[in-house]
Every structure is written in structure tokens, then in C-alpha cells.
């Protein structure tokens, strides 16, 4: 079998993280996207650079050995590539998974290799690969007679990814600036029989849940809290927001609450979690990243949803009878992220707050029911935001 990786999504995470690590592991990367401009540029450009930014300085990696296919016009070519590839990854956003599933399903259906295809979704979403697999296995995409044997042709593994991609220079082209630190953890249990793909950057584990939740409820919670407080207080970048001692203390308070959940739920040591929190805040405070608060805060509807970075941990803590004051404060700031015209979800959030009463907002945006212990506390937050 050829050592080929098919990657859906030609954006910054795709080029700067997933494809970079695949390239370094010796794979030929086949990018798949529907954006004409990205695919055209990838097809015309034989190489691009990934600049890793850390406190110690910069390191530049040159990325070569890739191809690009526009699935809008050349779906059959994508199906052919998937039918022969060793691994399929994606970084397209959770809402796009259902759109890439049909072509992946066709590629899986056409496989004849003895070793199953590895499918790994690299999204900021718990259980993203499970969600993608659900779409792939839908009878509309995979015939029922083939569904019975799909496990012989493909293995689906959830993953947790962590790497900050700041705003890019306007004339960067395909080149990507990205932080040096990264974490890419993948569930290895689906590959017990045939073995997993050899990708040195991936940390293969038996139980992914602690890694996913620790990352989502620490990195994503802290990053977003800094962004929303920074936005309300007129800060331009995340490092500028965290240079404000009050905002920095609030972010620490948020992560103290989520840490309480993580330590008790996953048996992670308090000291280990504290070191992880300190490392995360140091990372997102890096002024070299020049991370714009509006970029980090975008998509507030998703970030305020039931299983995401604020409501997710707050719900579990509330059910345990624990305090969630700091997380509620971050939610309040997120509900105020309604004036970013370039962000569709910011505009939609403003509309929802204007056209619905507080109860409807809590149910619609946060997915909470009146019987949930967190419900009345979030209801007060929304009522407060609507009064202003």
C-alpha cells in the first residue's frame, strides 16, 4: 500500500499542523477542499513553509510532496485516492463533517487492501470521529449490505488536538505561522488487530477521554474566557488581555473550577493539573503569537453549546453541587460577543437574544432544561445580558 494520507481541509490547521506532521512522518499528503483559491494555490505551489513560534524563537519547516484535489469538480479522483490511502484526516470544522462523509464513504466502499483505512477527525469537538463515522455509515452514504463489513475496510479513531494557530499575515499565501507546542492524541484501540499508522507526532492511547476533556476544559476554556473578557474590555490580542491582572486572575478562576472537575473525574493529580494550567496560560500569553481576540472568540453559539468549553464543565460541576461562578462570568462575556459583523454566529447570537426571552435562549443556545441544576444560574446570566 502506498504511504498516502488524504486530508480534508486546506486551511491553516490542515496545512500547518496535520499535513506538516504527516509530511515529517514520510507520507505524501493529498489535500481535498472545495475552495477554488486554496486548491489552485496548492496545485501551483510545490512547497510552503510552516514557521513554529515559541518562547525560544522560530523554527521553519519546508513542506513538500503533496497534491491537491478539488472535490467539487473531481470527486471520482478523491474516491480513488481514499481507496488506496493509509489514513484519512480532516480539519474542516464540526459543521462540515456531514458534507465530506459521502465521498469518504465511497472511497471506503471501493477499498480492496487487506489493511483497513484509518479515519481520524482532527476537530475541536468531543467525539468528532464518531460523528463523522455516523454520517459515513448512514444508509444514504453506505449501502446496508456493505455496512455489515465496513469494519474490514475502515477503522475510526477519535482524537484530541491542541495547537494554537494565530491570525496569519495577509500576504502569507500558503505559509503558516503556528506555535511550537502541540499535542495530538489518538485512540489506538480500533487498531489492535492491524496496527496503527506510523505517525511519530501522534500519541496513541487506550483511553482518550481524559485527554479530550482536559484539553477542551483547560486550553479551550481558558483561551475563550480570555478572548471574551478581552473583547468586552477593549483588548486587541489575547496576550494583551492576559497582561491585565484582573482578566488573568479571572481566567485562573475559570480553570480552577474546571480543574476541580478534571482532577476528580479522571484521577489526574492536583499538582499535575496545576502545572498543565500554568503551562497553558503561559502559552496563550505569548506575545509572539499576536492572537486577535475576535478570532479566538468567533463562533460563540458553538462555544456556548451544551457540551462545549463553558456549559459542559459547568453542567457537571453544578450537578455535583460545586460552584461555577467564574464559568458563569465567562458565559456572560460570551453572550456579549454580539457585535462582530464578520462572524456569522456573533450576528446570529445578537438576533437570538433580541427575538427570544431568556428561557428560550438558555434552551436554544446552551441546550439546558429547567430540570438541570445549572439552568437557573445560566438563566440569570442571560436575563442580566438582555436587560443591558
Descriptors:
alpha/beta, globular, single chain, six-stranded parallel beta sheet, three-stranded mixed beta sheet
Task: List the topology elements.
Elements: E1 4-8, H1 12-24, E2 28-33, H2 36-44, E3 48-54, E4 57-63, E5 66-70, H3 75-84, E6 87-90, H4 97-109, E7 117-121, H5 128-136, H6 144-147, E8 154-156, E9 159-162, E10 176-179, E11 183-187, E12 203-205, H7 209-232, H8 238-243, H9 245-266, H10 270-284, H11 293-297, H12 300-303, H13 311-319, H14 325-335, H15 344-355, H16 358-366, H17 375-387
Parallel strand pairs: 1-2, 1-6, 2-5, 3-10, 6-7, 7-8, 11-12
Antiparallel strand pairs: 3-4, 9-11
Your description of this structure?
- The protein is α/β, with parallel strands linked by helices and 388 residues long.
- Helices cover 48% and strands 15% of the residues.
- It has 17 helices and twelve strands.
- The strands form three sheets. A six-stranded parallel sheet has the order 5-2-1-6-7-8, with helices on both faces.
- The longest helix has 24 residues, at 209-232.
- It is globular.
- The mean pLDDT is 95.
Short description:
The protein is an alpha/beta fold. It has 17 helices and 12 strands. The termini are far apart.
Amino acid at each position: 500500500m502506498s504511504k498516502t494520507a488524504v486530508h480534508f481541509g486546506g486551511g491553516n490547521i490542515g496545512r500547518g499542523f496535520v499535513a506538516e506532521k504527516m509530511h515529517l512522518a514520510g507520507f505524501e499528503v493529498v489535500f481535498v477542499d472545495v475552495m477554488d483559491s486554496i486548491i489552485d494555490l496548492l496545485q501551483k505551489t510545490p512547497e510552503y513553509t510552516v514557521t513554529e513560534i515559541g518562547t525560544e524563537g522560530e523554527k521553519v519547516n519546508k513542506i513538500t510532496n503533496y497534491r491537491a484535489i478539488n472535490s467539487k469538480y473531481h470527486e471520482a479522483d478523491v474516491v480513488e485516492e481514499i481507496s488506496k490511502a493509509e489514513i484519512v484526516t480532516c480539519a474542516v470544522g464540526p459543521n462540515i463533517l456531514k458534507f465530506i462523509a459521502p465521498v469518504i464513504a465511497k472511497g471506503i466502499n471501493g477499498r480492496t487492501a487487506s489493511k483497513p483505512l484509518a479515519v481520524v477527525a482532527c476537530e475541536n469537538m468531543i467525539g468528532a470521529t464518531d460523528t463523522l463515522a455516523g454520517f459515513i455509515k448512514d444508509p444514504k452514504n453506505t449501502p446496508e449490505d456493505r455496512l455489515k463489513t465496513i469494519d474490514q475496510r475502515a477503522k475510526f479513531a477519535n482524537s484530541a488536538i491542541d495547537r494554537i494557530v494565530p491570525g496569519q499575515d495577509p500576504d502569507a499565501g500558503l505559509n503558516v505561522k503556528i506555535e511550537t507546542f502541540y499535542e495530538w492524541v489518538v485512540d489506538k484501540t480500533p487498531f489492535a488487530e492491524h496496527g496503527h499508522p506510523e505517525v511519530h507526532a501522534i500519541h496513541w492511547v487506550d483511553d482518550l477521554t481524559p485527554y479530550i476533556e482536559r484539553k477542551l476544559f483547560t486550553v479551550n476554556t481558558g483561551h475563550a474566557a480570555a478572548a471574551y473578557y478581552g473583547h468586552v474590555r477593549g483588548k486587541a490580542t489575547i496576550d494583551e488581555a492576559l497582561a491585565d491582572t484582573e482578566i488573568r486572575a479571572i481566567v485562573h478562576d475559570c480553570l480552577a473550577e474546571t480543574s476541580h472537575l478534571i482532577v476528580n473525574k479522571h484521577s489526574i493529580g492536583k499538582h499535575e493539573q496545576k502545572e498543565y494550567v500554568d503551562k497553558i496560560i503561559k502559552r496563550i500569553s505569548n506575545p509572539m503569537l499576536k492572537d486577535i481576540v475576535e478570532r479566538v472568540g468567533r463562533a460563540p453559539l458553538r462555544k456556548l453549546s451544551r457540551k462545549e468549553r463553558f456549559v459542559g464543565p459547568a453542567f457537571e460541576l453544578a450537578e455535583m453541587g460545586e460552584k461555577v461562578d467564574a464559568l458563569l462570568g465567562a458565559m456572560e462575556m460570551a453572550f456579549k460577543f454580539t457585535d462582530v459583523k464578520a462572524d456569522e454566529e456573533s450576528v446570529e447570537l445578537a438576533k437570538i437574544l433580541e427575538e427570544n426571552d431568556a428561557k428560550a435562549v438558555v434552551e436554544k443556545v446552551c441546550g439546558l432544561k429547567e430540570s438541570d441544576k445549572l439552568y437557573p444560574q445560566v438563566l440569570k446570566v442571560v436575563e442580566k445580558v438582555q436587560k443591558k
